[in-house]
Structure formats: structure tokens, C-alpha cells
UniProtKB/TrEMBL annotation:
Lineage: Eukaryota, Viridiplantae, Streptophyta, Embryophyta, Tracheophyta
Alphabetical UniProt keywords: Coiled coil
Any coiled-coil regions, as ranges: 3-30
Residue ranges with Gly residues bias: 328-337
Ranges for region Disordered: 314-342
Classification via InterPro entries: ARM-like, ARM-type_fold
Highest taxon above the source species: Eukaryota
Biased composition (Basic and acidic residues): 314-326
Name of the protein this chain belongs to: Uncharacterized protein
Length: 407
């Protein structure tokens, strides 16, 4: 009963604060003297809410500063009102200074309100996470999902030092990782936690990357083995680069990733291919060795041979001949149409594994993880394994030609 009453009181405060925030935001954008008119919507809302807020906000120590700002704003507006109708230099200066002060105080009001909302949101998220570990019979999964979505939306707005301090003090990362690793939670909840962790890395990589590398996030993402979890894994590889690939390799997870190139779910196969290409770009010698030893080249040759594979080099020849004739395959003139690059992109959309051997080899060649001598050695190893995996000399020759053409 008490909890329900407290929740209703918080909702009442939140409604008042949201109205104040909107009004103060409008006032910052346009604090001209004529807005001090009683009919000004932003001024009117702020003055009306100042009285209501005085009683509502006085019970919360975190909102005392906000109350002071509101009182200060009312005083500035009164001063501005009294100067209206006077055209001497003193009155002009009062209006000029008061307008600037209105904008400044309105900004302070908005910041204080956002800080309160952030604090309440994170505390609510932590309370819900704590109650759901492990999930009880009263656990509401939809509520937790909504709270995680709200948290992700908030940190996606960009870095904020006060918000970061709240996140660190509340140990949000650890709670999210517990959900991600918790087998008692549904896949959807775990995936939501994964995206929140990825967003924290974008929020401030320097602060949160260590927690990813030292924790169980990577293993959990691979064990979930879904499109969403591998998408997050790919995002983390792009963000953290070689150190994350080093961690994947040291945990022995490279073969566990490669195996999903054979997954029944096509979307998971495609996302795994993206992960493989990112690992190829950022991976050091040990990671690439692990990929080769996991029969990656053989799997890539098989994928390239499949209906969703194909050869981009052949497509390029066909396009050249078509452009010379001035018509496309469908008989439509090609003049003024897309470039070869856009045609290649369209072909890859319908054939995601086209030229995947050459694409992987190119990632190694242009990537950041290998020395030049290592790149040459891996190129020879890939060619050797292509020859072993090919069903004919013609297939091997086409793949060799693509690699040469790509370089």
C-alpha cells in the first residue's frame, strides 16, 4: 500500500517536472522581453507551476535547488515586468540583463529537472533488476523491458557527466550483465540487456570497456546465439577493436563463432559473416590462426558455392559488357543509372555470401591487426586451403582470380 502511494506521489512530481521542463526549454529558446507578457505560454506555465511546485517539491531534498531557481525566475520576471513601458537607458539595460538571466535560469531549471528524472529512472531500473534476480512469480518482464528501453534512449542522447556518475554509483553495468548472463531470463530480456551494454560503450567507451573485457558479456552473447546477440557482438568488436578480439580468442570462442556460419537461421548466418569480417580486420595473428584452424576457409568456400553466394568478379564483367551495349539485363538503358559500386551493393543484398573468401582476405590485407609478413603468410595459407576445399580447378581458379583482383 505504501509502495503504491509513493509511486503515485512520484508520478505527480514527474508530471509537474515534465511541464516545467518543457516550459523552461521554450523559454531558453526565446527569452525575449515581450515573452514576459502574462499571455506568454512558457512564462504562464512556469509562474502557475511555481506555486504548485513549492509544496510538491519541498518534500524532496534533491529538488530544493530547483525550488530556489523557480523563486529566482519569478523575481527576474517581476523585475522585467516593472521595466516595461519605460524607455530610458536604465530600463533598457534592466530588460537586456533580465532577458539573459531568464535564459540562464531556465537552463538551470531544465538541468535540475533532467537530473531528478535521471536519478529516479535509474533507481527504478535498479530496484526492478534487483527484484528480478532471480525472477519471482510476481516478476513483470514487460516492465523491465520498458525500463531498459528508457535507459537506452536516455544514454543514446549523448554523454552527460552527472548521468555517468549515477550509472557508476548504481552499478548499472553489473546489473545488466547479470541479466545478460542469467539463464532464468527470457531471450528477449537478455538481448535488451545486451543492447544496453553496447549503448554504454558508445556513451563512454573509456569508462565501460574495461567492464566488458573483464566480465562475462562476450561469452553470454555467443551462448545466446541469436541475431540480436551477434549484432551486439559485432557492434562491440567495431567499438573496442583488437582488445575485444584478443579477449574472444583467449577465451577460446573463435570456433564457437565460426560454427554459426552453418546455422539454419539465414539472418544469423549473415550476421556471423559480418562478425567474421570484423574479426579479420581487427584480429591479431592468434585470432586469425584460430579462425583458419576452425576450417573457416572451407566454410567460406561452401557459402560462396551456395545459392546465396556467387562471384562479384563475374558480375563486374557482365556489367561492363552490358554498359557497352547501353542496356541492362532487363532491356532498360543503363545511362544515368547507378555506379558499379551500387550494383555490387545490390548484388550483395540478394547474395550475402558472394565472393566471401576474397572479402575475408581483403579484410586481413587492409586490417589493423597483422604485420605485413603475417599478411603475406596468411594469404598463402588461404590460397592453399581454397585449393583443398574447391570441388574443381575452375572453382579454385575463380576464387584465386577474385583475390588477385581485389588486391
Amino acid at each position: 500500500m505504501k509502495e503504491a502511494a509513493a509511486k503515485e506521489e512520484n508520478q505527480q512530481v514527474l508530471r509537474v517536472l515534465e511541464a516545467l521542463k518543457q516550459a523552461s526549454h521554450e523559454l531558453q529558446s526565446n527569452p525575449r522581453p515581450n515573452l514576459a507578457d502574462a499571455n506568454s505560454s512558457a512564462i504562464k506555465v512556469l509562474l502557475e507551476l511555481e506555486t504548485e511546485a513549492d509544496t510538491i517539491l519541498s518534500n524532496d531534498p534533491y529538488l530544493l535547488t530547483l525550488s530556489h531557481h523557480l523563486t529566482n525566475l519569478k523575481t527576474i520576471i517581476d523585475t522585467l515586468q516593472r521595466s516595461r513601458g519605460h524607455y530610458d537607458l536604465r530600463s533598457f539595460l534592466i530588460r537586456r540583463v533580465s532577458t539573459q538571466e531568464i535564459s540562464r535560469v531556465a537552463g538551470s531549471i531544465e538541468s535540475e529537472i533532467q537530473a531528478w528524472i535521471d536519478r529516479e529512472s535509474i533507481e527504478n531500473l535498479i530496484r526492478t533488476l534487483n527484484r528480478s534476480s532471480p525472477p519471482s512469480s510476481s516478476f513483470n518482464e514487460d516492465t523491465l523491458i520498458d525500463l531498459i528501453d528508457q535507459f537506452v534512449d536516455r544514454i543514446a542522447q549523448g554523454f552527460n557527466r552527472e548521468l555517468q556518475d549515477l550509472i557508476l554509483k548504481s552499478k548499472v553495468f553489473s546489473e545488466l550483465e547479470s541479466v545478460l548472463c542469467g539463464s532464468n531470463f527470457s531471450k528477449e530480456v537478455r538481448e535488451k540487456a545486451a543492447f544496453a551494454i553496447a549503448e554504454l560503450i558508445r556513451f563512454n567507451k573509456d569508462v565501460f570497456v574495461g567492464q566488458v573485457l573483464m566480465g562475462k558479456t562476450i561469452r553470454a552473447l555467443i551462448s545466446i546465439a541469436s541475431l540480436s546477440s551477434f549484432k551486439v557482438l559485432c557492434l562491440l568488436i567495431k567499438s573496442i577493436k583488437s582488445p575485444l578480439v584478443d579477449e574472444i580468442e583467449s577465451n577460446g570462442e573463435i570456433p564457437n563463432i565460426i560454427i554459426f556460419l552453418s546455422a539454419e537461421d539465414l539472418s544469423l548466418r549473415i550476421m556471423t559473416m559480418d562478425c567474421v569480417l570484423e574479426i579479420g580486420y581487427f584480429g591479431r595473428k592468434e585470432a586469425i590462426d584460430a579462425m583458419i584452424m576452425a576450417d573457416l576457409v572451407k566454410k567460406l568456400v561452401e557459402l560462396q558455392r551456395s545459392e546465396l553466394g556467387g562471384d562479384l568478379i563475374d558480375m563486374g564483367k557482365s556489367d561492363d559488357e552490358t554498359e557497352k551495349r547501353g542496356v541492362s539485363a532487363g532491356g532498360v538503358g543503363t545511362e544515368g543509372k547507378g555506379t558499379g559500386e551500387s550494383k555490387e551493393r545490390r548484388f550483395l543484398q540478394s547474395h550475402p555470401f558472394a565472393s566471401c573468401v576474397a572479402r575475408f582476405a581483403v579484410q586481413l590485407e587492409v586490417g589493423e591487426g597483422l604485420r605485413q609478413s603475417e599478411k603475406r603468410a596468411f594469404k598463402m595459407e588461404i590460397l592453399k586451403r581454397v585449393r583443398e576445399a574447391s570441388v574443381s580447378d575452375a572453382e579454385a581458379a575463380t576464387i584465386f582470380a577474385e583475390e588477385y583482383y581485389s588486391y
